[in-house]
Amino acid sequence: MTSRILACAYASFxxxxxxxxxxxxxxxxxxxxxxxLKPVEIAEALEPPREGVIVFGGNRATGLEVVKNLVARGxxxxxxxxxxxDVSELKxxxxxxxxxxxxxxxxxAKAAASAYFSAVVSTLGGGGADSTTRPDFTGNKNAxxxxxxxxxxxxxxxxxxxxxxxxxATPYFARFALRKVIPLKEQAENYLIASGLxxxxxxxxxxxxxxxxxxxxxxxxxxxxSWMIRADLGKLMADAVYDSATVNKVYTAFDPTRxxxxxxxxxxxxxxQEE
Length: 275
Hints:
Elements: H1 2-25, H2 39-46, E1 53-56, H3 61-72, E2 77-81, H4 88-93, E3 96-99, H5 105-112, E4 119-122, H6 138-149, E5 154-158, H7 172-177, H8 181-193, E6 198-203, E7 207-208, E8 217-219, E9 228-229, H9 230-242, E10 249-254, H10 261-274
Helix pairs in contact: 3-9, 5-6, 6-8
């Protein structure tokens, strides 16, 4: 890095000498020169290009599905995981793993600064009934703060149908089951939106563990609700990382073939019996 700075300085000095020589040999004034770069602009120009995606919550469930889809795209993926987490599937995928706990702001910031990432994906959530130990808000807040500090421009966040205007679309059973989670998810959404990052928020309904079918879509219609396949959600999230049309948007993840409560409930029950 130092050698690059010295090279830039030498080139600038050489050009200055050339201007002086031309002025001495000609009656014409030297051509106007561009304004010198500011120190901040020089530092930014010398930064390596940003590449790769860091995933928080990527060792299991929806996060793992996101990682699989990113890897399939040929993306360089890093996942932050706690030392006690099972990372066997991540290792099999060949992703980079950094140790850390999303509830620890310092560890999260260190993970985000471990490379020049182009984007963050967070699927953080769960962890018990105690809201003080759940990462739904605190963990996601730490991830947003880490992205801002590391100047990572892009952030894709998964929450749940229920925050904001989507509350009316949430079935009563889901409102009751998620009564402590929805407010935390809404705080996380609002915190990300206010951060200045290029965000995308994706709200799914209940999730089913089956092979991907590719029937799910993103819609800005907050009145929609459906169950959906987790693997399909993972693909929607991975695709959103690269889709500039999704920047600064809040979406519902919707499967039009699973918007019937009873029909999908039977499918879910049969899934559990197979397990």
